[in-house]
Amino acid sequence: MLIDLDVLERNLKKTAELAQGAGVKLRPHFKTHKSVWIARKQIAYGACGLTVAKLGEAEVLADAGFMDLLIAFPLVGEAKLGRLRALIERGIKVTVSTDDVAVAAGISQVGESLNSRLPLYVDVNTGLNRCGREPGEETAALVRHIAAMRGVKVRGLMTHAGHAYGAKQLSELRKVAADEVKGLAQTKALLEQSGIPIPEISVGSTPTSKFIAKQTGATETRPGAYVFGDISQLEIGSISVDELAMSILATVVSTPRPGTVIIDAGSKTFSTDVNPHRPGYGFLKSNPSVYIERLSEEHGIVKVPEGVRYEIGELLEFIPNHCCTVTNLHDSLHGIRNGKVEMMITVDARGRIQ
User: Fold this and answer.
1) CATH no. of 241-321
2) Which CATH architecture has domain 2-226?
3) Rounded CA gap, 162 and 216, in Å?
4) Domain coordinates of the chain in residue numbers?
5) Tens digits of per-residue pLDDT, 30-42?
């Protein structure tokens, strides 16, 4: 696993400047890199705090001294609520999220037991069709119900426009970005008519974050994959080749038949996520027509065009489809500068999926 440190730092700076220029708080998603070292650099560039996917990631960051965290995933069950309570008792400012009264009720019980009202974001569906009720009256009714609970305080509305990765051109991506904030703004207006203030409008996805200056009404942006870049971003035009910081260096171990090369990197190295715009699981950095067409656990089966040859022992550098899931497969990443390894980046929260 290679991380170009110069590209990484440019990416961190560029996104921070976009948020600052738009007057919006940057709360990047930790799940992409799971690295305390990178998280500290994000804070140094101006991030207000971090977003995490799971309690385990929050606990890693709390141990490292991070004090302002958003858990962008519903917390269900006594075990997780107990861990939430433990984080708060350590003095960590934790904002939680949900799209359901039952989940909010459990969190409210924690708040009441601490004689506090825990800050909460309500998740809204703006097109991904994952978590979240529909914007408008459906979500407003939910928020009114949750706002009456004694142990939580609804601080904001949040959404994730992950369907942006399915955009076929930049105009389509711009529309997704506009719709992402529009639904939240409409819901906020309804709630404020009911006397419920909504100070935070939190939007998130790396592709739509490029348009944060035009997302009028947003107060916070939560991109994650911008740090490394990957094929998913490149194919929809939200980044350029010089923003690709992550690559995978593999060795040719077999050339069993014309048009096929085998490398020593399979599904335990590359993510099995596919891309709707391109076949395979990654392409050669120096020649995108060379791509990984199949994966088994230890083998990558590479499709090679006619007339292209590689020798046993040759090193090939591939760009993966999805950087976030690739990171979680590795204990550490090789930070390189000018072609040399400068440092090892520990993936501190690897495997923290609960």
Assistant:
1) 2.40.37.20
2) Alpha-Beta Barrel (3.20)
3) 19
4) 2-226, 241-321
5) 999 999 999 999 9
